[in-house]
Amino acid sequence: MSIIQEFREFAVKGNMIDLAVGVIIGGAFGKIVDSLVKDIIMPLITVITGGGVDFTQKFFVLGDNPNNLQSLDELTKAGVNVLTYGNFLTILINFIILAWVVFLMVKMINRMRRKQEEVAPEPAATPEDIQLLREIRDELKNKS
């Protein structure tokens, strides 16, 4: 088998295609969650905390600030060492929401699978006399 044929079998297998589809859907889903956090959750948190809260602009100045700059953009352009913990908080909230949504999806899928298993009838148990006859048949075959 040539290496090209092996690669073709590998690439066409269901697992690889499923993985590619999962990555594409995951990327799109990430954009949806990012928009949910930026456009819906963060404004609600701002209202709940009394307004004026924007986590992306939260930072600590770690170095000297000789010009007494106050905005993150000005500090970054001036090359001042800044710890931007607000961006981390936003990404952390984004992750928690994404993990929660994935958890709910998996929970829903598992519930649907359990319902399908309940609907599928179990095969009827073999009557004891037929099972005994099968064992006798198998023993007779083994002796021959």
Automatic annotation (TrEMBL):
Keyword terms, alphabetized: Cell inner membrane, Cell membrane, Ion channel, Ion transport, Membrane, Transmembrane, Transmembrane helix, Transport
A GO MF label: mechanosensitive monoatomic ion channel activity
Entry-linked InterPro entries: Mechanosensitive_channel_CS, MS_channel, MSC/AndL, MscL_channel
SUPFAM superfamilies: Gated mechanosensitive channel
Annotated compartments: Cell inner membrane; Cell membrane
Main subcellular location: membrane
Keyword Transmembrane helix among UniProt keywords: yes
Membrane topology annotation: Multi-pass membrane protein
Pfam family, one: MscL
Transmembrane segments: 16-33, 40-62, 82-106
GO terms under cellular component: plasma membrane
Entry function: Channel that opens in response to stretch forces in the membrane lipid bilayer. May participate in the regulation of osmotic pressure changes within the cell.
Family: Belongs to the MscL family.
Record's subunit section: Homopentamer.
Name assigned to this protein: Large-conductance mechanosensitive channel
Organism: Acinetobacter tandoii DSM 14970 = CIP 107469
Native organism taxonomy: Bacteria, Pseudomonadati, Pseudomonadota, Gammaproteobacteria, Moraxellales
